[in-house]
Recover the amino acids of this structure.
């Protein structure tokens, strides 16, 4: 690092999880420039203590542990409560629910109904003032969160999604023209990732970065910060459904900050849940592999068969230093799987017992928790945190006339080429 540079105006630095090099952030750094294996950057905050802004209700309550230079006053956050319904049926007296979605009676006001909104708020808060076009690849929920956040803040954004993700793009109002949506009709999430990466290599386009963006991870980390405030301790087990595993990595990073701040010694055990037959993270973990195995054709076939298609990333950050494998290892965690019927029944049970609809991915997490209890994998008196990553979408639709977003371009996976990249760029006024 050049010692002659001006001191950073930000309240944090970035540290490479592999080589330990530290960097001042400009709001756009995604990778360590040193020549070594893939590794995630992590934030190092000037304030090492846990000091929420108690006069704020939204995610920016935790601004001291968020890599942001800007805030959004009306942003929501995770609602955490003790479960008497599901906890009573499962005979788990210390089950806590981290609910992310729309549930006004509980104070949950995430308008796109999933915890991806936490990511979007923080990523946008990290960005410097710039004329770049933020480029986002998504299976659906992440794209919807960025579309709504960018529309409200008038940040130019290109969102690329597979067609099946478009049903999640329904909002309380029309999107601003600064948001452009491109749909790959016959594609899957990795196809969207590949096209977004190609477009991001052009001038004026900036890759949002996925798991490599510290804004994403630290935004999702606030799930655990909210839980710690409510429970007043770290949970012994943390259950979450995963596609990429970004939220689980973030939860462990938050737990380590809290452990250091509170001089505690125990980290939550990450219990990562996937939907059969699409289980690349669980398969790799069970076989003690450093990376998921399987062909694109196998993965595409499995995607067609799952209930929770938002969990279908076949290129998760598993092997990267600081990624899923390291997080499972460090937390003494484990993976669990469940089928479609069990996940659907679990979602129905949650609605009956807790009083709110939940997303398919959350149904997977509930089903895996039920299975873990039945198999004796958790102590019944343990403090358990169940991350309901999305919910209240049906409730939102009942209360508001939601406006479906219209894509600006539709493409076929079969005909993606270099010309396609420039066509997409031209859509945004760049070529």
């Amino acid at each position: 690092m050049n010692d002659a540079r001006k001191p950073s105006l930000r309240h944090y630095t970035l540290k490479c999880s592999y080589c330990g090099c530290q960097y001042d952030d400009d709001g756009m750094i995604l990778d360590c420039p040193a020549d070594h294996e893939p590794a995630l950057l992590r934030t190092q905050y000037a304030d090492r203590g846990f000091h929420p802004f108690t006069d704020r209700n939204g995610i920016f309550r935790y601004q001291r542990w968020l890599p942001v230079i800007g805030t959004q006053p009306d942003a929501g956050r995770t609602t955490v409560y003790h479960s008497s319904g599901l906890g009573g049926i499962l005979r788990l007296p210390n089950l806590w629910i981290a609910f992310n979605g729309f549930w006004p009676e509980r104070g949950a006001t995430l308008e796109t109904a999933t915890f991806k909104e936490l990511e979007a708020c923080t990523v946008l808060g990290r960005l410097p003032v710039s004329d770049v076009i933020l480029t986002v690849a998504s299976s659906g929920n992440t794209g919807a969160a960025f579309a709504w956040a960018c529309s409200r803040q008038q940040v130019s954004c290109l969102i690329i999604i597979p067609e099946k993700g478009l049903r999640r793009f329904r909002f309380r109002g029309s999107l601003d023209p600064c948001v452009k949506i491109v749909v790959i009709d016959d594609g899957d999430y990795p196809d969207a990732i590949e096209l977004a990466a190609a477009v991001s290599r052009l001038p004026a386009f900036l890759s949002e970065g996925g798991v490599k963006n510290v804004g994403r991870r630290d935004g999702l980390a606030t799930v655990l910060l909210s839980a710690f405030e409510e429970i007043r301790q770290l949970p012994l087990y943390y259950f979450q459904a995963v596609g990429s595993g970004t939220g689980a990595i973030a939860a462990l990073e938050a737990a380590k900050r809290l452990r250091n701040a509170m001089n505690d010694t125990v980290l939550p055990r990450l219990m990562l849940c996937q939907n059969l037959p699409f289980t690349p993270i669980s398969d790799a973990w069970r076989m003690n592999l450093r990376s998921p195995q399987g062909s694109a054709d196998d993965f595409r076939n499995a995607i067609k068969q799952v209930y929770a298609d938002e969990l279908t990333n076949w290129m998760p950050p598993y092997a990267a230093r600081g990624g899923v494998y390291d997080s499972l290892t460090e937390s003494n965690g484990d993976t669990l799987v469940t089928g479609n019927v069990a996940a659907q029944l679990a979602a129905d049970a949650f609605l009956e017992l807790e009083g709110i609809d939940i997303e398919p991915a959350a149904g997977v997490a509930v089903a895996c928790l039920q299975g873990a209890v039945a198999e004796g994998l958790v102590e019944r008196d343990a403090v358990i945190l169940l991350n309901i990553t999305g919910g209240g979408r049906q409730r939102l639709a009942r209360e508001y006339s939601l406006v479906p977003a219209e894509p600006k371009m539709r493409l076929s996976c079969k005909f993606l080429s270099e010309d396609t990249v420039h066509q997409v760029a031209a859509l945004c006024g760049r070529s």
Remarks:
- The chain has two domains: 79-113+214-397, 133-203+403-427.
- The CA atoms of residues 56 and 73 lie 8 Å apart.
- The chain is about 35% helix and 20% strand.
- Confidence is low (pLDDT under 50) at residues 1-7.
